[in-house]
User: Fold Phospholipase DDHD1 from Cyberlindnera fabianii.
Amino acid sequence: MPDYYNYTKTEEPKKFTPFSIYDSQRLEREHQNRLDGASFENKISVNEDFLFEVDLEERVMSPVYWDGAVYEVRRGSWFTSDGVPVKEELAEDLEQGYIAVKPYDKTSKDLQTNPSGNPLLKRLKSNPIDDVYVIRGEQKVVYGDDKTAYLLSKGYGGKFQVSFLKAVKNLPAIGATLLVRGFEHPELEKSKESGSSDISYTFSNLSEMFALELDEMFREKSGSLSEKQQENNTKEAMKLEIEQDYQEENQAVKGGGRQVDHLILCIHGIGQMLGTKFQAVNFNHTVNVMRKNLKKVYSENKEFQKLLNDKTGDNCRIQVLPLTWRHKVDFSTDTRAASNLPSLADVTVDEFRPLRNLVGSVLFDVLLYYEPHYMNQILSEVVLEANRQYDLFKQRNPDFGGKVSLVGHSLGSAIAADLLSMQPDEVDPESKDPLHFHFKVENYFGMGSPVGVFNVLKRTNIAPRSIAGPSREGLKTFACENYYNIFHPCDPIGYRVEPLIRREFADFEPASVPFLVENFNKQLSHLADVRDSLTQKMVDYVSDAANITSLIQAAQKQSEEEMTEKEQKQEEVAKTVMLDEEQLKIMSAMNYNGRVDYNLPQGYLELSIVSGVTAHTSYFEDENIAAFLLKETLTHHDPVSEKKVSKRVSI
Assistant:
């Protein structure tokens, strides 16, 4: 279960983000109705597509469709100079004092009295103690003018200090906290303008988080960071990322809902150890990254906008939701096994333990998934959550009559494949079967998917449902219109599936996911930076255990051997051939385009360990993936009438 389930508030929030004007007006209207004793809506949907919901009475905001962080909500009327709204009880006291003291009236009189004189001298000559207002808790407040006030610390509030505060107003002072009435005020502009730049310890994408994880693992030997420090660093980074998720989504809201034609549900899959830091609430963040990329790529690409006849470029009509399941499934082996059985850590060899932990954590979930007891739990939980999200989305968006697609990553792709193989041909929205969806699946995108190797081990082929009928022993058919298997060539978890459909496709190159032209150099530069950084970390790690000279010599020898092998492979040439009628019939029934395997072009990462980790964790953040999803979901598809493929032959 994620840490936030057991969260206990230990300190007051230090940063707040304003709602959009549209959401603020709706919240204020219901708040006033509540104060007036009229009927009111206690729970108000906010943010883009109303992904979040505010509970007015509890003053909290939480995500609607997924389990995630809960945010405190404050009605802001008085603010600190940093733009943080004070607690509402204090704001009420300040407002009562504001009405009683009438600083706005005194400011006006000061300016009208003796126009040629000095208003500041006039204010100093009046009795300053008359303008001190005492609120609950015996705290004192001095109102500087119609927009500012000073909350005095205990023991402060003498005549001289009050006179000084009334004279300088708007400036910081010892023993007093400057407060500002209203959010639209010059004192707060600097704070608002620098809101996003305050986030100095953030990551632009998930692979950078894994870069940090590997960096910390390779520091393990030197002990330069304690485990607690590492955990705090990661938590702080993720906290700021998640805060930024809401802030950026909120800034995009212009009011009301939007037309959504396609709903994409994303199923996660990652190892047990890695999941403790990068799963559940963090997978929500990963999906938020994909959502932003879809909007960004769409807004910057006129071709996609033409598909929807969109002249504004601000609505791609796609919504993406995270479907998390792992924290709801009991993977504990301690209560189900004999006490004399060892744990995964007990059987892990000590040499190069960080890498073994990394690989073992991924494999552990896979092994547990194919244990019948856990498999049934997982499949049932995924269907339950998918149906809940779909039904809720329909309820909250009654005009939605669009299509639904599934995205499965890693083990999540295997889960999606198994579920699609179990679906009936006709969807029953009222079905009570724990393994049946309430919706038809248009597209299934597997990313970094082990489905290929899993089915080879199970001696099971894959075929189109429209031709082969329902799944049976030794054959799986998927209840979806189009199946896409997307992988990076360096991803150790990603495997091809086309040879399971037609054996001869093992001799064909997979189709390619095209790079965005403007993204090509940026992508290679980012991957190269990650490679260079982590390569140095690994060199530092092994230098204590071996003579660096011999290590380099060994690496050079290996490089020469790899070069020889590479030269041999380069003797092969690509030959373009046309699919025959039977091949085209089968493949176009699996995917309208006649291909299922889609390869992301390889970058400049030579170091397989680093490349494999970053490749396996970067699908959701990749703008090329976002562009591919946009093209495949927004375009009307007719099966291709012919298809060319590249076949590799030796000469």
About this structure: The first helix runs from residue 21 to 35.
